[in-house]
């Protein structure tokens, strides 16, 4: 008897083995999943190690900023001497709005009394530490002590300083501006920035001529003017250091 036909392909023992397919998930337990680190739960999250460094850097920057700002304020303000005291930078001059053309204004001038010579930042001075005795107002043929003249400025005087070699006609013109009772000091001063310089407390005008039309305007504005620290204080009656 003939053998029955066999199916084509490999024999039963020769069929290729296939990888098992995905298994259907089994029944899940009820309730929340296990916490991190628990057997069967998700692995615990690792905190980034950069966070503490970022926080520390921000705190350090704030400390440096605050500390540096405090130190800067200390050196700029607490350690800065008062304006007008010896050893300080001179107050900067500025033009005050509405003022006479060419007049320079100086603010922050000390009014302290001192027995020591003062190295004034302006020449001639317009204020600052000065002698306890004022200078009698009037006309002087010789140079006067600046420390006493500044005290007169504090009382409202105008100091008309002029070059010692000023021509006689110009000198006579300036001397004629003084009348008894005027708050004027007129005297020669060497090495002036101009032939004639008008100074009041905190105000100064440098001129090239004794005929400048701003001279009477300066006197009417600043002789006992609003800038005077002690208006009405005397400008005469002092026996020392000089008399007219």
From TrEMBL:
Pfam families listed in its UniProt record: DUF3105
Keyword Calcium tagged: no
Pro residues: compositionally biased ranges: 22-43
Transmembrane segments: 53-77
Keyword annotations from UniProtKB, A to Z: Membrane, Transmembrane, Transmembrane helix
Region (Disordered): 1-48, 220-244
Listed name of the protein: DUF3105 domain-containing protein
């Amino acid at each position: 008897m003939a053998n029955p036909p066999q199916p084509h392909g490999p024999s039963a023992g020769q069929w290729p083995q296939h990888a098992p397919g995905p298994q259907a998930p089994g029944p899940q337990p009820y309730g929340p999943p296990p916490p991190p680190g628990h057997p069967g739960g998700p692995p615990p999250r690792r905190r980034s190690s950069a966070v503490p460094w970022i926080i520390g850097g921000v705190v350090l920057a704030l400390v440096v900023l605050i500390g540096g700002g405090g130190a800067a304020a200390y050196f700029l303000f607490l350690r800065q001497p008062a304006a007008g005291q010896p050893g300080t930078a001179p107050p900067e001059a500025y033009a005050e709005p509405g003022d006479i053309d060419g007049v320079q204004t100086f603010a922050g001038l000390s009014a302290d009394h001192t027995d020591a010579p003062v190295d004034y930042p302006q020449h001639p001075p317009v204020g600052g530490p000065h002698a306890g005795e004022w200078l009698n107002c009037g006309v002087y043929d010789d140079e006067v002590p600046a420390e006493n003249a500044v005290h007169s400025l504090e009382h409202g005087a105008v100091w008309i300083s002029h070059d010692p070699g000023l021509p006689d006609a110009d000198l006579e013109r300036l001397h004629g501006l003084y009348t008894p009772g005027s708050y004027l000091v007129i005297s020669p001063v060497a090495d002036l920035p101009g032939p004639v310089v008008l100074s009041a407390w905190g105000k100064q005008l440098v001129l090239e001529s004794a005929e400048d039309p701003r001279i009477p305007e300066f006197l009417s504005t600043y002789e006992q003017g609003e800038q005077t620290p002690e208006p009405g204080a005397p400008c005469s009656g002092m026996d020392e250091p000089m008399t007219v």
